[in-house]
Specification:
Structural class of chain B: mainly beta
Strand content of chain A: over 45%
Shape of chain A: globular
Largest interface: A-B, 24 and 22 residues
Largest sheet of chain A: 7 strands, mixed
Order of helices and strands of chain A: EEEEEEEEEEE
Oligomer: heterodimer
Number of helices of chain B: 0
Helix content of chain A: under 10%
Strand content of chain B: over 45%
Largest sheet of chain B: 6 strands, mixed
Distance between the termini of chain A: 36 Å
Shape of chain B: globular
Number of helices of chain A: 0
Number of strands of chain B: 12
Radius of gyration of chain B: 13 Å
Radius of gyration of chain A: 13 Å
Chain lengths: 114, 111
């Protein structure tokens, strides 16, 4: 178990640029979640996949955000035309399709939009 | 909708003091309940869990009991250490496979 891996750890970008983050879940986990966390807040749900299917998207996720999980393995989260309000920690987590299984989180990607 | 409400911080305690962090939830059906901990500069880690009413989760001296009648899952530790300084998040997994997190409670333990 190598854990959930996220890259990059930090990303600084200028407003209006596109950014893409990658998440490699624990290999045997079929569920993958994306969350956003701002200072002093708990993680806010963005979207989740079961295998390659994106099953749910939060209303928080504007049209500028898109996530993929080709082949049900790693996932990418892309933000187009970034805004300063997008600055946050983006967390990826994975789990089994089992109610007793907790989420296993990566260390996150910190995005700063200048 | 489903939600988690936890005690606001920050909480500052002396080493060996007793810790309680309150957590209550709102959910339809029977959620699973979790406590996660986030140490400075690190990701969230599972601390303990309980999947049905009256279950007690425990780990590293921390305990929490799933109380359906009061919809609560309070975190307790009898004697905190400096190394317990972190942010603690209460969370639920509902019957729709969706996780909801509280806003977090920051704990600082001073020697």
């Amino acid at each position: 178990d190598t854990g959930v891996s996220q890259n990059p750890r930090h990303k600084i970008t200028k407003r209006g640029q596109n950014v893409t983050f990658r998440c490699d879940p624990i290999s045997e986990h079929n569920r993958l979640y994306w969350y956003r966390q701002t200072l002093g807040q708990g993680p806010e749900f963005l979207t989740y996949f079961q295998n390659e299917a994106q099953l749910e998207k939060s209303r928080l996720l504007s049209d500028r955000f898109s996530a993929e999980r080709p082949k049900g393995s790693f996932s990418t989260l892309e933000i187009q035309r970034t805004e300063q309000g997008d600055s946050a920690m983006y967390l990826c987590a994975s789990s089994f399709n089992d109610r007793d299984t907790p989420l296993h989180f990566g260390n996150g990607t910190r995005l700063t939009v200048t | 909708g489903d939600s988690v409400t936890q005690m606001e911080g920050p909480v500052t305690l002396s080493e060996e003091a007793f810790l309680t962090i309150n957590c209550t939830y709102t959910a339809t059906g029977y959620p699973s309940l979790f406590w996660y901990v986030q140490y400075p500069g690190e990701g969230l880690q599972l601390l303990l869990k309980a999947t049905k009413a009256d279950d007690k989760g425990s780990n590293k001296g921390f305990e929490a009991t799933y109380r359906k009648e009061t919809t609560s899952f309070h975190l307790e530790k009898g004697s905190v250490q400096v190394s317990d300084s972190a942010v603690y998040f209460c969370a639920l997994l509902n019957t729709g496979n969706q996780f909801y997190f509280g806003t977090g409670t920051s704990l600082t333990v001073i020697p």
